[in-house]
Amino acid sequence: MINKFRLKFGSKVAVLPVIHVQTLKQTQKNVRIVKRAGCTGMFLIGHGINEESFYIIQNTIALENPELWIGVNYLWFSAKDAAEQMVNNMPRTNGLWTDQANISNHGLATETYAKAKNFMYFGGVDFKYQTPEKDKRAAAKLATHYMDVICTSGVGTGHAPNVGKIIAMKEAVGDFPIAIASGITPENANMFLGYADCFMVATGISQDFQTLDQSKLEALLKTVA
Questions:
Q1: pLDDT tens digits for 62-77?
Q2: Domains parsed from the chain with CATH numbers
Q3: Among 69, 18, 6, residue whose Cα is nearest residue 206
């Protein structure tokens, strides 16, 4: 069966800007930047905003931009509860990203992934601010049973992962997609080409915490083209 990520994004590296959602107007401004740069998808993540406001903005943006692939990260939920929210909220958004996919807990990981029939699931593996995986190859291989895309990162926000880590994980999973969700910039992205399948980017393409930078985003897209 063809992976959901491959069906949507093909074999090229997908660049999915991450918008820090704070207000509707601010989010709409960033969506326009994403579209003008030529991206076909993005993620919305809530920072300093209550859950109800985030849901309203999320659904408004989805209804206003039906041509865009839109993923979300519900920071306030566990992976299981975030997946349940996606089920209840469908079909307004297309993907879910969680920082911790609980792959070491077979029951929780299975229950989360079982809900992902109608959306693409990016599960956090060896992700920032989580307990590091001792055997990153084994963790990546195990993760292929519980998600559509392995989502990993460096040690913190704005920090790129070690290239050797990404190579090791990719060698373990073959064509299974791996996304990097921290530290990617137009200047370092080429280091990960051939090993990462998706760049989920905020800091490296932003003017500030609230606003994406179109010129930086376009430079990143040119690097991966």
A1: 999 999 999 999 999 9
A2: 14-224 (3.20.20.70)
A3: 18
